[in-house]
Amino acid sequence: MRDRLFLVKFGGSLITDKTKPYTPRLDVIKRLIMEIKDAVSEGVKLILGHGGGSFPHVSATKYQTHKGFINEDSVYGMAVVHNDAMKLNKIIMDELLNAGIKAFPIQPSSIAIAENSRIKEMYIKPLKILLKYGVIPVVYGDVGVDLKKGCCIMSTEEILRYLALKLKDEYDLFIVMCEVVDGVYTEDPLKRPDAEFIEEISSKNIDEVKKYLSSSHGIDVTGGMLHKVNILFELAKEGINSIIINGLVENNLKNVLTGKPVRGTIIKY
Ligand code: IPE
Asked: N or C terminus of the chain: which is more exposed, having fewer CB within 10 Å?
């Protein structure tokens, strides 16, 4: 029997204040980490990924890093964005270590190569060995070298997608996305109170859901949500299921990790 392994993402909007550059939400980070600690004490294994929120997104927008090496500032910009992503990773690592959790950071930009923002190669042997020793590898949304554009943004979802496909034969995987809303809605729930909650996304409604997500406005929540759903559905086709939950609701993460029912959108095939 394969061991269960969770791939958990802390969304950037959850762990930072997206309206204020370089502002972590330390109370939320500390609570989520305590929930992980509780789950780990019950034998739960996981890889943790986190978004960048208001740390690298500001510089990434300034230097248009997602477009590649487009002008003479691009190489410098790529380094600045990476540095900003690392600053938030340092805060997350500080809190994990303060909580006494065995976690170790893995720097995606140093071990991966992308092509048009899709990861083609990644040297994951150290990560696999850390897992065997019961350590939580910590990855994060980063920049990366890109064979087509020079550089790109490697989102946490893209990193987790690559890892999931590489680890699925060895582990029984389940992906948990912690966001600031309960899951996927027909419209942006933060702007439209009449938006309807979607409990499950599968081959039955995926086309309809994609239409909702691409026609609604609000880059942060819905643009991000479409990217997430596309990647999660791609993984569902490979037999890897996932759930999007609200990380602002206390104990949601702990409950999912310990097998208790939680409100969220399930993505399966
Ligand atoms: C973004 O990573 C990383 C950079 C801009 C370098 P993610 O796409 O995973 O982050 P969030 O969750 O949207 O903040």
From this structure: N
- The confidence band for 267, taking pLDDT boundaries of 50, 70 and 90, is very high
**Pocket residue to mutate for ligand 1, from 15, 156, 181, most atoms within 8 A of Cβ:** 156
Contact call for residues 143 and 82 (beta carbons, < 8 A): yes
- pTM of structure: 0.96
Measured from the Cα of 50, ligand 1's closest atom is 9
Least Cα distance to 140 among 152, 163, 156 occurs for 156
How remote is the CA of residue 141 from the centroid of ligand 1, in Å? 5
Q: Indicate the pLDDT class of residue 220, thresholds 50, 70 and 90.
A: very low
Residue 144 CA: distances (Å) to CA of 25, 62, 178, 214: 26, 17, 24, 26
C-alpha separations of 216 from 53, 68, 99, 123, 191 in Å: 21, 27, 39, 37, 10
Atom of ligand 1 nearest to the CA of 13: 14
What token pair was written down for 7? 């791939």
